[in-house]
Amino acid sequence: MSVKAFKLVSAVEREMLMGDKNYINIECIECCGKNLYIGTNDCFIYHFLLDEKVSTAGKITFAATKQLHKYLGLKKPVSELKAASALTRLLVLCDNTITLVNMINLEPVPTGARIKGAVTFTLNENPVSGDPFCVEVCIISVKRRTIQMFMVFEDRVQIVKEVFTPEQPCAVAVDGYYLCLALTTQYIILNYNTGVSQDLFPYCSDEKRPIVKRIGRQEFLLAGPGGLGMFATVDGISQRAPVHWSENVIGAALCFPYVVALDEEFVTVHSMLDQQQKQTLPFKEGHILQDFEGKVIVATNKGVYILVPLPLEKQIQDLLASHRVEEALVLAKGARRNIPKEKFQVMYKRILQQAGFIQFAQLQFLEAKELFR
Asked: Which domain holds residue 359?
């Protein structure tokens, strides 16, 4: 049973990025507030400003205005971008080196500070240092079976820790002192401060691309065996039932109460509240799906799109209109954390009342009575 939870809206058309240069491909994206950064296969970074516009009918569109683009001087693709807005810095991974550039003019920092020997990297969104003018960066090193932790300041970098792993790591997410790692044959949780590790479950990285994503404090989302999206805490347990993905998921993102996944043909939307698949959006040739401060962005090699969530109240009303009372109530309860308390109580009473009338009309008097109560 489907719910219209998201709309797919174009943000950057291919002409804005590449004109008639067909060889240019999008390799990575980063979004920070209204700033959208795109890294390409020909070693350029593009900076756009995204403006969200809402028509009188409530239709949302995005206007992207190109600010500037910058060539990094190598014949290698820009493989990852991460913004550190507190430092007004963009961390750029290209040719196994992370360079710090200014978020506004894309110029490298004058000191030339960089991190060498990085295969991939991520930021610690639950930092342990307590310094607001520094970001904590975790890299998978080019050195075999090695993870390195760095502190990155406005114009310098400092290595904090080097950790060795039992197998070669291929993906990592960080929360505080905890690393959630996809190794060659399994996922593990590793506390880099104490060195204590815990096995989660087996996974073959040779057959499929692993997914490791921090979704909240001390909780991660992983691509498990059998096409399952598995949740795991830093204690190595799962507090939520898994969601059923397709076998070949490329990327996943969280937009509460939904888990969004991308495969070769579709964007699928599952509810974290009842694990059901709620929506399927055809999307061919997608290769990036990421969420940035609640904004979910998908991209092909040539264009960038935003998944705009429909207001939860509208989704609940659509479910009630289809007489899907249970689903509407589950979604309404789940909406509690997204809506201010007073507003939620007023909304929830009205929904219970509507649901009661639906049950009453279907002669389900006991259920209706409970809802009216």
From this structure: 318-372
Residues 6 or more apart whose CB falls under 8 angstroms from that of 116 comprise 96, 97
Average pLDDT, the chain: 89
Q: Count each helix (H run) and each strand (E run) in the chain, helices first.
A: 5, 28
| pLDDT over threshold 60, residue 1 | no
Contact 44, 71 (CB under 8 A): yes
Which runs of consecutive H residues, i.e. helices, occur in the chain? 14-18, 312-321, 325-334, 341-361, 365-372
Tally of CA atoms within 13 A in the half-sphere of 245 that contains its CB: 31
Residues 298 and 335 in one domain: no
Report CA dihedral (226, 230, 234, 235) to the nearest 10 degrees.
-70
| pLDDT tens digits, one per residue of 5-30 | 899 999 988 777 777 777 889 999 99
Same domain for 293 and 325? no
Enumerate residues 6+ apart whose C-beta is below 8 A from 156. Answer: 111, 113
Based on the domain organization, do 173 and 33 belong to the same domain? yes
In a shared domain, residues 255 and 194: yes
For residue 116, give the CATH number of its domain: 2.130.10.10
As a whole number of angstroms, the distance between CA 10 and CA 59 comes to 13
Question: Model's pTM, two decimal places?
Answer: 0.86
Number of domains composing the chain: 2
Q: Is 31 exposed, middle or buried (0-12, 13-18, 19+ CB in 10 A)?
A: buried
| Length, in residues, of the chain | 373
Distance CA 81, CA 44 (A): 12
**Residues 243 and 229: beta-carbon distance below 8 Å:** yes
- The residue-averaged pLDDT of 205-228 equals 88
Same structural domain, 331 and 354: yes
Q: How far apart are CA 48 and CA 41, in angstroms?
A: 18
Q: From residue 345, how far is each of 336, 356, 364, 368, 369 by CA, in Å?
A: 9, 16, 25, 19, 19
Q: For residues 294 and 310, is the Cβ–Cβ distance under 8 A? A: no
d(CA 24, CA 14): 10
- Residues 257, 294, single domain; the answer is yes
Helix (H, G, I), strand (E, B) or coil at 127: coil
Structure tokens at 31: 């979004």
